[in-house]
């Protein structure tokens, strides 16, 4: 029998662009679930609890106002949120490393690992831990190693680490959350792993059709997020290259993009010429 009961309490560590809107949508669609978003940044939490939210997305303010104080809460008390939650999202920054191996290229997992250690310290019982941050493949193994070490010293602890990457675009985040192309959940194929995946699937099924919820192993989920970022970057880089050719030949890049986008194999999204390329 699984140690994971139906989720009624969720915590999200990280009140940024991903964590805040995602948890607001979960609270909005799942009124029976208590959702607490926590962050070390007191100013950011104060903004989430005010009339001036720290980020702007069309539709976000209305959802937060409707749910805040009912089943959506914002707090600096990370230990309390971890203790009380059954499922914990890790939604912190993964900046580029500034030193050591991978400097200037690889993501720095120091914040992800710091949250993992906090979960290990304050959990007290079984927890489903969910990666929301953009991480390299096998990051879940690093999180799991920290949590397994804690299990050696406390038999009450039990953890499953899932991957549930975000696919949001700035300016349409609430629309993307309300009507996603897909929800991706990766986990282990063990009995406990499948039980943990089922709990997260059940949350999303409140508003996402079953056929749009894709379950994979953990590593496939992590890699899919990176691959999606790479494909989008290629697309933007390609139209920028076409834009340079248009300038040299007198063609109009908007007309070219419009015509190319009518090909059903290509589509018209992300075919607007811009400066640089997509930042993952």
CATH superfamily: NAD(P)-binding Rossmann-like Domain
> What Rg do the Cα atoms give?
20 Å
Number of helices: 10
- Approximate helicity band: 40-55%
Task: Label the CATH architecture.
Answer: 3-Layer(aba) Sandwich
Function: Involved in the biosynthesis of glycosaminoglycans; hyaluronan, chondroitin sulfate, and heparan sulfate.
Pathway: Nucleotide-sugar biosynthesis; UDP-alpha-D-glucuronate biosynthesis; UDP-alpha-D-glucuronate from UDP-alpha-D-glucose: step 1/1
EC number: 1.1.1.22
Catalytic activity: UDP-alpha-D-glucose + 2 NAD(+) + H2O = UDP-alpha-D-glucuronate + 2 NADH + 3 H(+)
Structural descriptors:
280 residues; alpha/beta; Rossmann fold; six-stranded parallel sheet; two-stranded parallel ribbon; 14% strand; UDPglc_DH_euk; NAD binding; NAD; EC 1.1.1.22; NAD(P)-bd_dom_sf
Question: What's the SSE blueprint?
Answer:
Elements: E1 9-13, H1 19-29, E2 34-38, H2 42-48, H3 60-67, E3 72-75, H4 78-84, E4 87-90, H5 110-122, E5 126-131, H6 139-151, E6 158-163, H7 173-178, E7 183-187, H8 191-204, E8 213-217, H9 218-249, H10 253-261
Parallel strand pairs: 1-2, 1-4, 2-3, 4-5, 5-6, 7-8
Helix pairs in contact: 1-3, 4-5, 5-6
